[in-house]
Amino acid sequence: MIKRLAVIPARGGSKRIKNKNIRDFCGKPIIDYILSTAKTSNLFNIIHVSTDSNLIRDVVTNLGFKFDFLRPKELAHDNTPIMPVLKFVVEKYEVMNIRFDEIWLLMPCSPLVTVNQLKDASKLFEKYRGKYALTTISQYPVPIDWAFKLGKDNKLIPIQPSMFSVRSQDLEKKYFDTGSFSIFSPSCVLNSKGADPKIEFIGVELPKYNSVDIDEEEDWINAEFIYKQYIMKN
Questions:
Q1: Which CATH superfamily is domain 4-135+175-231 in?
Q2: 127 to each of 121, 130, 136, how far by Cα in Å?
Q3: What is the tens place of the pLDDT at every residue in 89-121?
Q4: 95 to 89, 90, 92, 98, 197: CA distances (angstroms)
Q5: Which of 46, 91, 106, 150 is the 20 to 30 A CA-CA neighbour of 63?
Q6: Which pTM was predicted?
Q7: Distance between CA atoms of 112 and 54, rounded to whole angstroms?
Q8: Where are the domains of the chain?
Q9: Residue 170 carries which DSSP code?
Q10: Is 68 helix (H, G, I), strand (E, B) or coil?
């Protein structure tokens, strides 16, 4: 049987949205949504919230989830890449003689992720037997080939002027990383260095409404609206 570890990174020092990872989202701490989804999926042997915050630890414990260890402060800075955090968690469990076949990264502010999406991603990852890491993607809502940059006096400068004569239906679809969740093999995590851009990924596509990345207050409002419209009503 495949042994899976889910790591939910939730450091305490969020700047743009205070206490973002445990702030109330439609009646519950936002981290509770991905915790509950992970638990309901029955995919994971251990669900670990990686945090340096005693407050977040207490919230997670009160939600009924076991807490094994805190994240060291040196891995909880604004510019800390995520791979060293995963590496620390995996190595910590190995010291406890607990090993896994798959390492999942589930983001705490991903309340729109569903159980079926986790299961579909699991099947796709297994198909390639861990040869590639996996991450969630979604299609850009408009062609990025028609992008502008903003110059002086609000002047719009086309980045690819020649592409404006191409119809949208004739343009190749482009995708972005939604930042919802990812899957890695243990060797990928343990051999990684820093942000490690050399990791090769396959993508599992999420619908556009499912791809909200909450960084600003406007993102939060948008995510709550989508949750109420698409999730609570279904």
A1: Spore Coat Polysaccharide Biosynthesis Protein SpsA; Chain A (3.90.550.10)
A2: 10, 8, 16
A3: 999 999 999 999 999 999 999 999 999 999 999
A4: 10, 9, 5, 7, 27
A5: 91
A6: 0.92
A7: 26
A8: 4-135+175-231
A9: G
A10: coil
Q: Which residues contact 64 (CB under 8 A, 6 or more apart)?
A: none
Q: In what order do the strands lie in the sheet with 201-205?
A: 46-50, 4-9, 102-106, 175-184, 133-139, 201-205
User: At 187, which helix (H) or strand (E)?
Assistant: helix 186-190
- Taking a C-beta distance cutoff of 8 angstroms, is the pair 52, 89 a contact? no
Phi–psi pair at 68, nearest 5 degrees: -95, -40
Neighbours of 14 (CB within 10 A): 18
Find all residues with CB under 8 Å of 176, minimum gap 6, and list them. 137, 138, 140
Q: Which two tokens stand for residue 101?
A: 């076949």
d(CA 67, CA 51): 10
